[in-house]
Design goal:
The complex is a heterodimer of chains A (about 100) and B (about 160).
Chain A lengths: L3 E2 L4 H9 L6 E5 L16 E6 L2 H14 L3 E5 L12 E7 L3
Parallel strand pairs in A: 2-3, 2-5, 3-4
Chain B lengths: L2 H14 E12 L5 E6 L2 E7 L1 E2 L1 H19 L3 E15 L2 H11 L4 E2 L2 H13 L5 E15 L14
The chains are: A alpha/beta (about 100), B alpha+beta (about 160).
Chain lengths: ~100, ~160
């Protein structure tokens, strides 16, 4: 299939307009395959994406091996986020609310 | 996600955020998204998708959840903006196939819109593609240190 999403990069542009990712710890809720994650992860100090969808996470983790050492993907649901309190500077609800 | 689950998730996110941390809510909003033909000659609208009631209800639940957590003093709204996010396909048939598989819960491509899109695409330039203009909303929220009602200084951060 020829599907292409946001080739103009509007989403990335507005995300960086709204946030300064430099040296920040980011939590992405509902990261799926990590499409959005890679729009900003390189600028952050740590990025953790989580999602309950195991097959999507497999794709995300495969990309992570090539793209970043400081980006991690976890299997979890937003009903119980498996991280300590006050860990992150920024949380992103990625098309997930 | 149901309203109560959304509020609970927003509380969980709040727990993991540092005081004055930022929550970004980035999501599509139902708005009878337009279907367009785009080529090197320009672009034109061929019709609009129909919002599915379940998708509209999901949007309403999300807005209500954010209103609730704001009223509880967990977050305070800092900034909001709409923008367009485009999905492109080479042909109308590929667009239709995708929508039937992926979007059936929130947007519907009516037959007359598909026919008009196919007709316009067939008569357009050879490089013509089809796209859907998705209405997106991005909102920046600040996680209050304790309760925003007693924490108004975050407004100037």
């Amino acid at each position: 299939m020829s599907l292409q999403k946001d080739p103009e990069g509007f989403e990335k542009r507005i995300l960086h307009k709204f946030l300064d990712f430099k040296d920040k710890r980011i939590l992405e809720v509902g990261c799926g395959e990590g499409r959005l994650t890679w729009q900003y992860a390189a600028a952050s100090s740590l990025t953790v994406g989580f999602d309950p969808d195991h097959s999507a996470l497999r794709v995300a983790r495969a990309d992570a091996r090539d793209k970043s050492r400081d980006t991690y993907f976890a299997s979890a649901s937003a009903s119980h986020i498996p991280f300590s309190k006050e860990t992150f500077d920024i949380a992103i609800l990625a098309w997930s609310l | 996600m149901q309203h109560e689950s959304m509020v609970h998730a927003l509380d969980e996110i709040r727990r993991t955020l540092k005081p004055n941390g930022i929550l970004i809510d980035l999501r599509p909003v139902e708005d009878n998204w337009s279907v367009e033909i785009v080529s090197s000659a320009g672009w034109q609208v061929s019709g609009r998708l129909s919002d599915v009631p379940a998708g509209v209800a999901d949007d309403e639940a999300a807005f209500n959840a954010m209103r609730e957590v704001e009223s509880k003093g967990w977050y305070i709204k800092k900034e909001e903006e709409e923008f367009a996010f485009f999905y492109y396909w080479d042909t109308p048939s590929e667009m239709k196939e995708f929508m039937e598989a992926e979007w059936e819960d929130f947007e519907k491509l009516e037959e007359d819109v598909f026919r008009k899109t196919s007709s316009l695409w067939a008569s357009a330039n050879a490089d013509a593609r089809v796209r859907v203009r998705v209405k997106m909303l991005i909102t920046k929220w600040i996680r209050c240190r304790s309760n925003c009602q007693f924490d108004l200084h975050v407004l100037i951060i």
